[in-house]
Structures are given as C-alpha cells and as structure tokens.
Amino acid sequence: MTIYTPKSLDQAKEIATLISDNPRDCLRLHAAFGAHFGGDMAITQNNAYMLKGKPSLNADAMSGVVRRSGICRFMVITSWDHEHCTYQCARNDEPEQIVHTFTYTFEMAKAQGLTRNRNWQQMPMQMLRARALTLMLRAVYPDAVSGIYSPDELADNMNMSDDERAQISADSLGEELRAPSQAPRAQTPPQQHRAIPSNPPADQHLPPAFSQTAPQDRPTPQHVAQRLLDVATLGKINSEDGSLEDTEWDEDKLNEVTERAAKVLSWTDLEVFATGLWTLTQEQGSADEVDELLKTIKSLGYSEAKLGIF
Questions:
Q1: Residue 76: its H or E element
Q2: Residues 6+ apart with CB under 8 A from 80
Q3: Domain assignments of the chain as residue spans, ordered by start
Q4: How does pLDDT run across 72-86, given as a tens digit for each residue?
Q5: Is 158 within 8 Å of 165 (Cβ atoms)?
Q6: How many CB atoms are located within 10 Å of the residue 96 CB?
Q7: Model confidence band, residue 180 (pLDDT cutoffs 50, 70, 90)
Q8: Distance CA 165, CA 271 (A)
Q9: Closest C-alpha to 48, from 62, 67, 66
Q10: Is 206 left (phi over 0), alpha (psi -120 to 50) or beta?
Q11: Strand runs (DSSP E) across the chain, as ranges?
Q12: Confidence at 194, pLDDT banded by 50, 70, 90
C-alpha cells in the first residue's frame, strides 16, 4: 500500500485531483483497473488510458496482469522483426506439453487497413509486438484480461486524426514519436518498415550489442527489459522431458520486478534494472533461469565492469 492507495471515495477523489488533469477519467480508470495494481491510483494512471470514454490498458500492463494472476506458466517472444512478431506461452492449469504460439504479421495489419496509419509507418516493430502480445493474452488468458483492450487497438479503430492516433500509440508503447516534418514521405524507405529512433544517436549507455545497429532498428529499453524479465521468470527445465516447470519466484518479488520493468524508459534505466534483476534472480530464480538470464545479458554485450554482476 502506498500514499496513492485510497481507503475511501473521498480519498480517491483527492488523489485523482493531485495526479491527473482529468480527475474524473482518473477515477474511472481506477475503478476499471485499480484492482490489478493493488489499488494504487498512480500506477494505474501510468498504465491505463481513457479514449473517448473507453478505458484501456497498455499491452505490457496487460501482460503484467496475466503474470500476477498465477495462471501463466511462461510467455516469451521467440521471433521478431519488421515483418512479424511471434510469442509462445503456456498456462499452469494445462498439460505441460501444451504450448501456444501466436504470430502477428505486417501483412495481417495491412489486410485490416492499419498500415496506412502513421504509427504503423514509423514504429512497425513496436506495433507488431503489441498486437501479437494482446492477441495471445486474450486468446490464452481470457479469464484474466477478457474485455480489456490496449490504447493503440482502440485508437486504430476510432475516428480521430492520424497524428492523434500515432501519439496515443507512441505514449502507450513508451516510444518517442517523430514529427512528420522530420520524415517527409519522399524520404521514407520504400517498404516503410522502419521503427522510430528511441534513443540519442550517441548514447554512452547503449548496450554494446546495438552499437552497430541503426537507431531506427533498435528495440526500446523497455522492450529489452521485458525480454530480460521473460527470461528470468521462464521457469525450470525438466531434465527428463524438457518441459518447463513453474517459476519459483515469490509473488511479491515477481510483482515488484514486473513494475520495475514497466518503468524502464532509457538505456541508463536498463543498466540499473539488469543489475537489480540479476541480483533478484540469483535469490529467487532456478538455476535454469539464472543461466538463461546470464546468456541474455551477455548477448547485449555488457561487461563485468559495466554492470558488476558476474
């Protein structure tokens, strides 16, 4: 419980006035999603959006709801580029051999008439990941997220300006939106499958593995943080049949680290998060989770001196 967790309606109104320019919407979002965040209005406000009277929850927050529900055995991105994003996941209440796979492609978005929108032209990878994630969550975990939609999903199907739609999508995905004047249509790559720059051209905290990657092709710090979290909470591999067993993380610790991952907005934040996650995984995780996290951190090019974790 925090100072932003109201004990009465009057307290909720007071907090809403303090943290939001639109207290009424803040109260409605808290009523819709507050229970998923321990009643904390500030955290709810940071992850939820009101679009023309319709409450929505960003894709990463939806995945957090599923993780905290206890029904998720694992969820992980297995393949991702400018053309598609593929997730795999499993439930704790299903046989271990059942693994669900979901892929969302640029062609699918095109068939739905979405790719004409500026958000899809400027940040296709981010949009593909969000759509693949929400598609999977609602299909496999309807008991946790049934009826919940992300802001970008609602925006793509609402009557609003392209600039407004793009800004809503960027905000919900933790991205920086490039102004139209910075990217004239004549200079856009032919396929328009380019993501937006999510960090300064010369960032001393950029993971070494991305140093030779064009800014528009890099994932965001929050996406990398989510990837590290997925690996750290993947579970233990059964040596007999190769299946994944439940993660051994304490629920409170898992909630804490999930919230921290959602707050990673810069490469500096990522370094701090990676160090903290490594420490917690050694305490909470299985040997398999520790090994996989170490491999993933090394794949980013981080050195011992940089993070001091090995």
A1: strand 72-80
A2: 86, 125, 128, 129
A3: 17-57, 70-176, 221-303
A4: 999 999 889 889 999
A5: yes
A6: 15
A7: low
A8: 31
A9: 62
A10: beta
A11: 48-51, 54-57, 72-80, 84-91, 100-105, 236-237, 244-245
A12: very low
pTM metric for this prediction: 0.56
Please give the single-letter amino acid code of residue 288. D
> Is pLDDT above 60 for 25?
yes
CA 2: distance to chain centroid? Answer: 23
The enclosing H or E element of 45 equals helix 41-47
Q: HEC profile for 177-237?
A: CCCHHHCCHHHCCCCCCCCCCCCCCCCCCCCHHHCCCCHHHCCCHHHHHHHHHHHHCCCEE
Best CA proximity match to 16, nearest among 36, 31, 38: 31
Predicted confidence (pLDDT) per residue in 46-60, tens digit: 888 888 888 899 888
Structure tokens at 157: 């199907």
Tokens 């939001």 — which residue? Answer: 20
- Listed in sequence order, the residues at least 6 apart from 276 whose beta carbon sits closer than 8 Å to its beta carbon are 257, 260
Distance of CA 180 to the CA centre of its chain: 25
Residue in 227, 199, 207 with CA at minimum distance from that of residue 79: 227
What pLDDT score does 183 carry?
Answer: 45
Question: Which positions ≥6 away from 187 have C-beta within 8 Å?
Answer: none
| Tokens standing for residue 295 | 């491999």
Q: What is the residue type of 208?
A: P
- The first and second tokens of residue 109, run together, are 């978005």
CB atoms inside a 10 Å sphere around CB 309: 18
Cβ(105)–Cβ(81) under 8 Å? no
